[in-house]
Amino acid sequence: MRQLVEGLGDTRGMMRLRIAETLGEIGEPAVPFLCEGLASHENPVVRRAVAKTLTLIADPSTVPNLLYALLNDEDTVVKGSSVGAMARIGEPAVQALLEILAEPDRPESMKGHAAWALAFMGSEAKDLVFKELHSTSPTVRAAVVGVLSKVAQEEQDEEAYGLLIQALDDEDVNVRCEAAAALGNAAYAPAGGPFRAMLDHEDWETRKAAALGLMKIGDGAAIAPLKAALAQESEDSIQPIYTLAISQLERQLAMMIGISLFCAIVLLEDPAVKTGTELKGLMAIAD
Questions:
Q1: 257: which residues sit within 8 A by CB, 6+ positions away?
Q2: Residue 125 · residue 90 · CB < 8 Å
Q3: What is the pTM of this model?
Q4: Smaller CB count within 10 Å for the chain: N or C?
């Protein structure tokens, strides 16, 4: 088994791949030898391949070994591959990743890896992650927003959307803006009211996030509030954002009015359309 692990340092990429696949098929019996290689092999190529092989096996017992490599290995690829394996393992790795995020002295790159892994897990991690929305660490809360975003969009999970709305009131600007971006990208219409309220926020980045969110969800009711906000905005850098949002929303509104008028004219000219597939097609365009 050690010879197979040693073979992961072969200069031929296809050979390394075949060895990794073989070790992956062997599974649990290979784990101790792979963990030994990850911890102590002098060749970073071997350590990288070991971490990728552990991703194939996805054994929860390897979380401490992968965590050690993420925290201590000098090779950035080994770090990335180790956190990738943790993401593949899923729920058993959640707590270790949350602890990395909560530690203020950890490098931002490492926290980025941890946040990515949690978001990758998505719904698999949500039971453990969602409750961390009340963590004292803003970095943890921002990572939770990343998971919420994925779960909400992939599963149309109303609980996740509700928690994202709640995060719009977070005391940390990054958490608020991440939540706003997630809701905007999902075009979640119920966020329109909270976004409009955020236009009066004292923090300009929050106001900017709200304006972008309103534009993305296509909230026609926000045109007047956006114009009012633009008139009193003191931050020059976000005034163009307001202008863009207003322009986009007015264009969408004009298009919707035009389509509605077109449909009305067609119905007046040919009432039989009401029961035909033509009406369905017209309404689909209007929607």
A1: none
A2: yes
A3: 0.79
A4: C
